[in-house]
Amino acid sequence: MKTVTIALALALALAAQAVGAAAPTAEAPKKPDPGAVPPVGHFQGGDTFETAVVIPELPYYTTGTTAGYTDDYDEACPYTGSTSPDVVYRWTAYYTSYVEIHTCESAYDTKIYVYENEYTPGEYYACNDDSPDCPGPPYRSWIPPIAMAEGNTYYIVIDGYGGDFGDYQLTVEEISIHDLCDVICPPGGFDENEPVCFDGYEDETNGGCSALAWSYPGLNTVICGTSGNYNDNSYRDMDWYEVTLTEATAVEWCICAEFPARLWILDGRDGCAGMYTMITDTGAPEVWCCVTLELEPGTYWFIASVDGWIGVPCGSQYVAGLFEEGYSPVEELSWGTIKASYRR
Description:
By secondary structure, this protein is mainly beta. 6% of the residues lie in helices and 36% in strands. It is elongated.
């Protein structure tokens, strides 16, 4: 959780929703397999399932090179026909957990395959090639959190596209189940009731200070909404929710979205001209992101949106929660329990 106080000029620019970045240029198409022959290199990972390097504990971080290994495995996710050398690691789960795997910092075009207990060609447990979730250079691989069951062994294969090979960085991390979610609107959820955005869209439902329009869910509410980018990705649908507090209250503002999301709490006690961001944070797709703040009496704005101008389709869904910290409804369900109902 990051606490940020932003100058008025920046806050007003945020409200106008026009602070943007140029649409990203399209990535170059995949190159055909160059047929390169890898040089003999220093061996780090195992060459096959039988010689797979054991991961002793999580989190696990390692580096190595695929140079000098043989081409044993290939899967289509969606590209096939790899002639690249590959290496293998294995993790035996001591308890059931959710684990994410990536090679985002690697020096070449990687692929990752995961198999459960044995090699099952064409029937992998998880697979990725060219994840948009990796920062930095394109064509790296990231497998979002997957369940790894107690007592099972998971084989992680690092491969390359076409004939590509080279230095890799492998990260295998457990993700707390409490951070995972499914984007499901519960019965009785507050519907933001906004049309799905589109190119040329004018946000007149809850566009906040840019449209002088807000939604009013009240505290202790689960909110169901949508967001996305429009106008050639130069705008994002930002949903503003207004709450007026009559007494000092610690408020928790959370979002679980199909997309990389950002949320804000803005001080609206002096209106749009005097507003400023009190706190903001970002969350990965299908991972709960929450901020908590002690607020004095007055009017505040809670915003949910796409995190940036990244080509998220309009109509992409999110579920948000706006609760007093420690709130328990009549049904004796805490917000933590409500969040738990969405977990995988």
